[in-house]
Specification:
Layout (H helix, E strand, L loop, with lengths): L1 H12 L17 H11 L5 E2 L18 H16 L4 E3 L9 E7 L5 E11 L9 E8 L2 E11 L1 E7 L5 E7 H14 L10 H13 L6 E2 L3
Parallel strand pairs: 1-9
Antiparallel strand pairs: 2-3, 3-4, 4-7, 5-6, 7-8
Helix pairs in contact: 2-3
């Protein structure tokens, strides 16, 4: 009985998200219930930090959309909450797979919750490339922040945790999150997009700070 209840709970929380008239997922509905269901099934894992090889190479494509992937997604939501993050890529908990989760607000204060496997960031037409030069941080570079210009609109295509094709779009802070997490899965941290001087400063901030969540020390 309990096992059946658990399976039904997972099926409900991992249901295919509805889409709008343009085919983009509607990830703004039932956010609290969906995030809670993922997180409460998961186990929080420590965060991998800059310097670990898994963060500095392109991750493997997801090819098996099975219970193992579902458990990974649950653990990622639990880990994201522990670290008080708004997005988390699988390699940030040491898993070499192209998956990220997010629980992020946009500049209008609207909450977005979802999962993207095998994400591809779409190239924007020139007329849509308005840069936002805001501060950015990363759970894998704890306690450090730096200003980084990114487009204030982003579109990511990929698959959900069931393997269904999806499109996700975001503006403002959420657009930054989508770009940041997709970067992770191709081996880039935000500090890799900074000038040498700003990157050095971010690493100094990290060295001088104390993470507020468990991390995996580099040997």
């Amino acid at each position: 009985m309990a096992q059946q209840d658990t399976e039904q709970e997972r099926a409900g929380s991992s249901a295919v998200l509805p889409v709008d008239d343009e085919g983009f997922v509607i990830d703004t509905e039932d956010c609290e219930a969906r995030e809670t269901a993922y997180r409460e099934r998961g186990t929080s894992r420590p965060i991998t930090v800059v310097g670990n090889p898994v963060l500095h190479k392109e991750c493997k494509d997801v090819t098996e959309f099975d219970d193992k992937l579902a458990q990974l997604v649950d653990d990622m939501f639990a880990s994201q909450r522990t670290a008080e993050g708004v997005g988390l890529a699988a390699n940030q908990i040491g898993v070499d797979l192209k998956v990220f989760v997010y629980d992020c607000g946009d500049d209008e204060g609207v909450r977005h919750v979802g999962v993207v496997c095998n994400p591809v960031l779409q190239e924007l037409p020139a007329d849509q490339r308005r840069l936002d030069d805001s501060n950015e941080g990363c759970l894998s570079v704890p306690t450090a922040y730096a200003s980084l210009a990114r487009p204030d609109y982003a579109v990511v295509t990929g698959q959900d945790e069931k393997g269904n094709p999806i499109k996700v779009r975001g503006t403002g802070y959420f657009a930054r999150c989508l770009q940041h997490e997709t970067d992770h899965l191709y081996g880039y941290l935000y500090i890799d997009r900074l000038s040498k001087r700003d990157r050095k400063d971010a690493l100094r901030q990290m060295a001088e700070g104390t993470p507020r969540y468990p991390v995996v020390p580099n040997d």
